């Protein structure tokens, strides 16, 4: 259900942006899509696994807030981390560099999206295997997903190494030949971030959530430092390395 919701959300956002030419309206349609699919897809699918009923119990609401808040806060900080180089570029560089960075970062976003769809597709299996008395299945599933992410990223690296300027030229009518090395660095960072997201989903399926908030808070501090040190002096190359280091730290913190 989460895979279907992700695909519908992407379609709704793209259609809304094309029809309205307004980012705010497109975001509103995206939120509406997420709200509707929650009741039409997610909850019905969840009811097939375990019973779900409405409750006005204050203690239950408090317990739910305590359990879910770290996941919610980590998701918000994750969005900030991903875009931290953009914020730094806005602060210290001209607008045209922001445009170029947005173009070369888009393939990295595609890798993260592919990884998210892969993770969500197997999330139910992941939760099922986490309760298994044989942890081998849980580990093998995660290794297989990581292998798929790596193969997809490898294909993207090869494609953009040879045709990295042709693709943006067709889509955006912009020459980014000088920024191809930056693009390839961002792709590597996206792979690290994708694996970190998978490990986050694995920990969530094991009901380990609070520690993840601490991981994101630590990395948020690192992201500010990397962006402040690298981007003012090195420009787009510094932004690419800042993104790579942010995602690498995220992965290392999860592995630790």
Which key phrases capture this entry?
256 residues, mainly alpha, globular
Structure description:
- The chain contains nine helices and no strands.
- It is an all-alpha fold and 256 residues long.
- The longest helix is centred in the C-terminal third of the chain and has 46 residues.
- The model has no long low-confidence stretch (mean pLDDT 85).
Uncertain ranges: none
Order of helices and strands: HHHHHHHHH
Number of helices: 9
The geometry reads as globular
Mean pLDDT rating = 85
Structural class: mainly alpha
The major pleated sheet works out as:
none
Compute the CA-based radius of gyration: 20 Å
- Total strands: the figure is 0
Percentage beta strand = under 5%
Cα end-to-end separation: 31 Å
Helix percent reads over 70%
